[in-house]
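Field reference: sequence -> structure
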Amino acid sequence: MEENQSKLDSYIDYINAHILPFIDYDELDRSYQTEEKAYAKGILNRLHTAMLEQYGDTRLVCGHGDIQEDYAVVPGVIQGKKTGEIALALLGIDLSSSGEHCQTEFLCKYGVISQGNNDLPKALAGEITVRYLPYDYCYTADISGDIHISKGRLPEGIKEILQTFQEHTTELLFEENKDMDMER
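Structure field:
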C-alpha cells in the first residue's frame, strides 16, 4: 500500500487488478442457482481475504476510531426479498455513522453492476430490479456499531453462505494461463 493511499483505495485497487476482471461471471451466475453455491463462495472468500490483506483486519468500527476511515467497501451477500435470489456484492458502509449502507455493486452475469447507475440499459436495470430489489444484505466483515444488521435475523440463504464461504476456494480465469504469461 502506498503511504498516502487509504486502505479503502488499496482494497479497491487490489480487487480491480487481481480479482474482479478474472471472475467467470457466467459461472458465478450459474453458481447462485445451485444448492452448494461453491463458485460464489470461493469468490466471496477471495474478496474477504483481499479485504483482510488491504484493510489489515476484518473488524471495523462505526463511529470515530483512532486511524479508522470513515467509509469502507466490504464484500457481502444480498438476497432479493421478493425472489429469494442471491448475489455477491461489494457494499459501501459509512463508518462515521451507525453503519449506514450507502452503495451496492452487484456481482452478476453482466459483471459488476452499480445499483442506481443511471447509464445502465433499461433492460439490465429492469432485470436487476426484478431479481434483487428490495434486498436483505450482510457482509463478511465484523463491523461493530452497525445498527442496520442483525446477524440473528438474516434470511437463511445469506446466513448459509456467510457461515461456509471460507471453506471454499476457486480458481480465477487468469490462473489457468499463468504459466504462459510468465514465459513472455
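Note: The chain is about 35% helix and 25% strand.
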